[in-house]
């Protein structure tokens, strides 16, 4: 489908049961917004109001080196941590 790296993360409301988010919550949109705050442009995928799941796709450029990949992972960690309270109703630490 193309050249370069491609990774996806399935977004679930409960890690242990793999429960999907309800139709009233679009986790991909929340993560895309938080990602911009951390210097990332992320792509999310949702079909039929989340009925078939939600995914966050990461596709860095073909010329990505180890340092850039590390920065991407740091930004992704920060993005997930920032979005978790909004998505899961957990308190910030």
Overall description:
- The chain is of the alpha+beta class.
- Helix content is 37%, strand content 15%.
- The chain is built from two helices and three strands.
- A three-stranded antiparallel beta sheet has the order 1-3-2, covered by helices on one side.
- Strand 2 and strand 3 (54-58) form a beta hairpin.
- Helix 1 crosses helix 2.
- The model has no long low-confidence stretch (mean pLDDT 89).
Gist?
The protein is of the alpha+beta class. It has helices at 27-37, 66-88; strands spanning 7-11, 43-46, 54-58.
Q: Counting H and I runs of at least 4 residues, what is the number of helices? A: 2
The neighbouring-strand order within the major sheet is 1-3-2
C-alpha Rg, in Å? 14 Å
Taking the alpha carbons of the first and last residues, their distance comes to 40 Å
Structural class: alpha+beta
How does the major sheet shape up?
3 strands, antiparallel
As a percent range, the share of helical residues equals: 25-40%
Beta strand %? 15-25%
Overall geometry comes to globular
How many strand elements? 3
Mean pLDDT: 89
Give me the strand/helix succession: EHEEH
């Amino acid at each position: 489908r193309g050249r370069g790296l491609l990774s996806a993360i399935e977004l679930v409301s409960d890690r242990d049961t793999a429960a999907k988010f309800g139709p009233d919550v679009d986790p991909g949109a929340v993560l895309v917004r938080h990602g911009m705050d951390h210097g990332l442009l992320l792509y999310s995928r949702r079909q039929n109001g989340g009925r078939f799941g939600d995914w966050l796709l990461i596709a860095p450029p073909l010329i990505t080196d180890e340092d850039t990949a590390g920065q991407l992972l740091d930004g992704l960690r920060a993005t997930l941590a920032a979005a978790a309270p909004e998505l899961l109703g957990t308190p910030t630490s």
